[in-house]
Amino acid sequence: MVNALRIGIVGLGTVGSSVVRILKEKQDLLTKQCGRPIEVVAVSARDRTRERGIDLQHIEWVDDPLVLAASDNIDVFVELIGGEEGIARFCVEEALKHGHHVVTANKALLARHGVALAKIAEKKGVLLNFEAAVAGGIPVIKAMRESLSGNNVSRVYGILNGTCNYILTRMLAEGISFEECLKEAQKLGYAEADPTFDIEGFDTAHKLALLTSLAFGCVISVDDIYVEGISNISLADIHAADELGYRIKLLGVAVKTDTGIEQRVHPTMVPTSSVIAQVQGVTNAVSIQTDLLGELLLSGPGAGGNATASAVIGDIADIAKSHPGFQHGPVFGTPAQALAPYKRARMRAHAGGYFIRLTVDDKIGVFATVAKRMAENSISLESIVQRPLAENIQPNTKNIVLVTHETTESSVRKALSSIMEDGHLIDKPQMIRIERPN
Amino acid sequence: MVNALRIGIVGLGTVGSSVVRILKEKQDLLTKQCGRPIEVVAVSARDRTRERGIDLQHIEWVDDPLVLAASDNIDVFVELIGGEEGIARFCVEEALKHGHHVVTANKALLARHGVALAKIAEKKGVLLNFEAAVAGGIPVIKAMRESLSGNNVSRVYGILNGTCNYILTRMLAEGISFEECLKEAQKLGYAEADPTFDIEGFDTAHKLALLTSLAFGCVISVDDIYVEGISNISLADIHAADELGYRIKLLGVAVKTDTGIEQRVHPTMVPTSSVIAQVQGVTNAVSIQTDLLGELLLSGPGAGGNATASAVIGDIADIAKSHPGFQHGPVFGTPAQALAPYKRARMRAHAGGYFIRLTVDDKIGVFATVAKRMAENSISLESIVQRPLAENIQPNTKNIVLVTHETTESSVRKALSSIMEDGHLIDKPQMIRIERPN
Predict the structure, then answer these.
(1) In whole angstroms, what is the distance from residue A372 CA to residue A366 CA?
(2) What is the ipTM of this complex?
(3) Is there a binding annotation on residue A391?
(4) Model confidence over B186-205: pLDDT tens digits?
(5) pLDDT tens-digit map of B90-136
(6) Which of A394, B25, B35, B262 pairs with A125 at a CA distance of 20 to 30 A?
(7) Does the beta-carbon distance from A327 to B35 stay under 8 Å?
(8) What is the CATH topology of the domain spanning B349-434?
(9) Domain map of chain B by residue range?
(10) Could you tell me which of B67, B108, B61 has the C-alpha nearest to residue B86?
(11) Which fold has domain A5-136+305-329?
């Protein structure tokens, strides 16, 4: 039997502790599957005394993560500290330079420094595996990096944040407001005390940036992502969408267009009959469209200690099964040196269908004015629903809901700005982009 | 740059021709992704003169597939002939014994001889990759074999046959009979002239047998699968299911129970709100439930030249990216020598919910008799729908539709047999098992 694969882990939060526990509990299964034992030989975390429910007795405790990163006693360095700068970055760099394989769940680090780190890994001939960084337990990185070799991807989109999907699912199912759902999610531990990072789409953007690089063989560019969160989605939107046969999901979307790559994170209407519309609660899902496959969709748990640990362990097992010193495929599917420059397509050129909800004075001629503004901007309409709002909400007001055929972001913005100038709106207009499966 | 990876392909039908064409068209992309060129150096097929729309000019033609399997001029042998015995089996064996990596899409061969072939491959230290054998372009083999390392699978189920799913989808959408849908599917090339193998569930069974081995680390046992096809599904079933909030799908299901492994292929009711219920037309889907992940679902194209070729090319790319002479994980996740014996759980012990549709005389007391038989067998009912059939279909008859809470196959069979003896049935009773997502 080959020697044990020696693991060093830094960061012993929920995921780190789960990895240590599962590697122990499942050691027989993993040894059988990998042909060699996997052994956690050293760990490092901030607080040595904290109770984590795991047995660290026969594992070396290293105070300094950087020392562990450079240790000759490990084969694989597992980084579960998180954060795009500071200690996480330093020790991943150190471990790679030292010739260790690295496994990380750190989306922020990779979204910012992934290409630079991949260059080091590829130069050193070691692996930098990051399945856990995107969509938790769903093996989307492996699917894109390995299974889709030879495919040209045209679009990738997904529900990449469980907190947002939980809130949007509950709003529809229970008819309760965004604020109430958020509070509930916080109580259940699905949302952080400061939920901004999830709710406003930044977490989704980090994950999308990695998928975009894998999909299109380009460098990672998280700063080029258009980001809009879900905090302004109202029950009125949710219900109007439902009535028209749509669900609202926070999607990260990356599309290859004639003018470049469009990366965007925003509330999105998807047809209720689509598979992704049925992805409920904290579950994540990713859809990948390619020339050879049409659409491939993966859904599963996007977070949680066990699910994320499963992805980390899958990454470790891949290393354990490999012959020491072998070469493997590039970190982002294409060698880091050969990743294409990122060419951004402007949001204003985005073409697609739009859902528009206007709260207007209940007066004669208002609808005609709205219709005229749409026509002026060459926007053709698929559905129109006009309905008085309940008296107890806003007396003498109407909700006009429009679904457009394919048009451009710039046309919709122009039309909405004219409508606002017309002065009939009582509230900010709502505009939600529509995404259709292939 | 490393030398080109030399490929020999036997079988140049739709998939084989697509592989040759795509490897040529995508050679730059694949070379970048794999770090070395992939080159088809030799092919073999029955008819050299057939027009396939591919350029074979610079590729050696070998008349005898066995000669190609043993050729020293190739690194990877790709078998796309099909069939569980005969030439496909001989040449895969020959290629493995000769130390070649093998890529195959042949589910029948693997369902029958997979373990024996895996033993040869593992002894020789070569890969036997078969992503294309199950669910076409969906990377379910890789997910189960690699990503789920350390997971204990409790159940795997899926829509594994596009023909059946196409027919069931059309029956509901268009309200047309099984026979008409089948004719339509044949016209569109989604069903064979002799559709028995697809329609009666045997194709699904072959694929399920492979998933079961991967899921539970046991030997493959295709003969232990309970198989029931879709040819007796009527529009009445489809509509009753719809009314009760279910869709009917032909599923292959493998479950670990206390008494052994249950492998079954049959029409199945799944809740309309589940993700798998929304998998339409020829699309396939596989759901895997594990202790660490909860549920993972993958959906995508289950057949077609390009999609299947994509899976074959993914398998080839994995070999191309590997260092020559490296060791890799076992063919079925667990080393072939260590696969557990198969222990079959009997269908009569199967526990679950059931949909039962009875066509009965429209007479007083019939329903009471039916209810009594259910009670006698300790079957509790979740829903009951009783409705007269349209006069022009069967005068003076009623449809009784029952959905049971969890019970056993054996109780349901006993109750139905008593009901048949009671003599009120006008038609064979219909019984469809219910499968719920986690």
Answers:
(1) 10
(2) 0.93
(3) no
(4) 999 889 899 999 999 999 99
(5) 999 999 999 999 999 999 999 999 999 999 999 999 999 999 999 99
(6) B25
(7) yes
(8) Alpha-Beta Plaits (3.30.70)
(9) 5-137+305-335, 142-301, 349-434
(10) B108
(11) Rossmann fold (3.40.50)
